[in-house]
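Entry for the shared binder. Reason: the reviewer on the internal report wants the predicted structure included alongside the sequence.
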Amino acid sequence: MIKLCNCLKIIAFLLVAGGMGSLELDAIDMWTYLCQSLLGVTLWLLSNKWEEEIEFYENKKVR
């Protein structure tokens, strides 16, 4: 599961960086860039939260 979280972080980075590059090339407009960047940032934050929860439940002993 940790590998999945790392893959999501990479995808989030590519969304933000790719959106910025596409905006500079005038391939997308500002609104599309904003939506794509917000999606990337949200994905990054959620993957961090999921990674914390996975580590918490792996360390917690369940009866």
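Summary line for the report: The mean pLDDT is 90.
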